[in-house]
Amino acid sequence: MIRRIEFDQQLDELKTLLREMGKHMEEALALAVQSLQTLDADKAQRVVDNDVQLNAMEEQIMDIGSRLIVTQQPVAKDLRRILVAFRIASDLERMGDLARDVAKVTLRLQGQKLIKPLVDLPRMSDQVRAMVSESIESYLTENTDLAYKMAQDDDQVDHLYSIILQDLFAHLTSDPDTANQAMLLVMVGRYIERIADHATNIGESTVYLVTGHRPDLNQ
Amino acid sequence: MEAIIQIEKLNLYYDTYHALKNVDLDIPEKTVTAFIGPSGCGKSTLLRTLNRMNDMIPATRIEGSVRIGGTEIYGEDVHVEALRKQVGMVFQQPNPFPKSIYDNIAYGPRLHGIKSKSDLDGIVEQSLKQAALWEEVKDYLKRSALSLSGGQQQRLCIARALAVQPDILLMDEATSALDPISTLKIEELVQELKSTYTIVMVTHNMHQAARVSGQTVFFLNGEVVESASTDVLFSTPSDARTEDYISGRFG
């Protein structure tokens, strides 16, 4: 068996970068939600500042992948490895932006007190982080079963999100003075829910990588 | 679509060497089919069985069936010359005759009994146009074909093959000795010719197969491993050996 050593090393490099991006993204989400729970501006600022690293890693993946397409003329699964790396990198970069948006809410709430202790949003965030972790794991190990299982968890996330919405809408109507903060927290719920959707995209990419067919896990 | 070439249980031996093993393959009319595979896999051997070029190799033995347009080409009453008129061939190295451009094209039609100058003029012009060479040579038809560039010589050989009005054109690595621009010209030409002719090509350039053909057949050790539409074979091949080969991880 001829091995394309240089090519395979570069394909592995894409994987390594995506693993790092995934880890980075999970940490950003955890830190952003922590910052919101305690309205900790320093933590929030760290999330905002660190986002450039995710952007840089995405660009690195685009550079390596484009170079491999030009120089190695990949076909079949080799080509899918690169196309999938582009797509996952773009998903993770967007997820990073959404974690940054959560942190920005913390910054906007400076000088205020939380209208209620946050319980469901951190729970939702924990579930979504587990999804992100599983989606990356499914990609790294090419485990389509895990990709499908992870996508099912999105239903629970959507359920939690609807509970959060009901709760905050109740605040909006009962205490108009807190409307501004309640709106911002609704948006946080929306940001986290969007992150889960991107995680299911990663699951779809895994299935496409392995089978060559595109499923729709976002249903 | 009706298969113009139907190959069934074809086995070919060079003396004791079993070069083609139980090949079953249908090639539809007016399509481009590419044969790919490592050296010695049997792809050129199969191509050469389609106009009986293997007859010239001593100790060659063939079993099975090759039908072209419904006729068994290894049948006793088949005239090889008539077969080769129906099934033209272009080789790796351009091989123009050391004659004028005009006489290269007119050679086959003359052999088949066409003598009228105006008929021959018409055939020469039409063949050169079909081979996308007319504009480049129309004012120099009396010049030696050997004065042409390699890419032009190869298109001349294609024109020469077309001049006897074949149904099928076999191309055995017809661009492997050409530069990239000449290669692209031939590839474009193939795209145009497929509306009129059935083209079967052997190529070592997998990306050429991907660019040009509608059907690709992957050979290994004298067997057809996989035959599929080209986009399927190069994106989601069904056999792991095909995937290894097209991904360059074979050997």
TrEMBL record, chain A:
SUPFAM superfamilies attached to this UniProt entry: PhoU-like (SSF109755)
Coiled-coil stretches: none
Signal sequence annotation: none
InterPro entries: PhoU (IPR028366), PhoU-like_sf (IPR038078), PhoU_dom (IPR026022)
Any one Gene Ontology cellular component term annotated for this protein: cytoplasm
Keywords, ordered alphabetically: Cytoplasm, Phosphate transport, Transport
Pfam families (UniProt xref): PhoU (PF01895)
Keyword presence, Transport: yes
Gene Ontology biological process: intracellular phosphate ion homeostasis; negative regulation of phosphate metabolic process; phosphate ion transport
Stretches assigned to the PhoU domain: 18-105, 122-205
Record has Secreted as a keyword: no
Location of this chain's protein in the cell: Cytoplasm
Transmembrane segments: none
Entry's family note: Belongs to the PhoU family.
The protein's assembly and partners: Homodimer.
Function: Plays a role in the regulation of phosphate uptake.
Protein name: Phosphate-specific transport system accessory protein PhoU
Organism: Paenibacillus lactis 154
Higher taxonomy: Bacteria, Bacillati, Bacillota, Bacilli, Bacillales
From TrEMBL, chain B:
GO MF annotation terms: ATP binding; ATP hydrolysis activity; phosphate transmembrane transporter activity
Keyword ATP-binding included in the entry's annotation: yes
UniProtKB keywords: ATP-binding, Nucleotide-binding, Transport
GO cellular component entries: membrane
Superkingdom: Bacteria
GO biological processes: phosphate ion transmembrane transport
Ranges in coiled-coil conformation: none
Domain ABC transporter, first and last residues per copy: 5-246
NCBIfam families, sorted: 3a0107s01c2
Record's protein name: Phosphate ABC transporter, ATPase subunit
Species of the source: Paenibacillus lactis 154
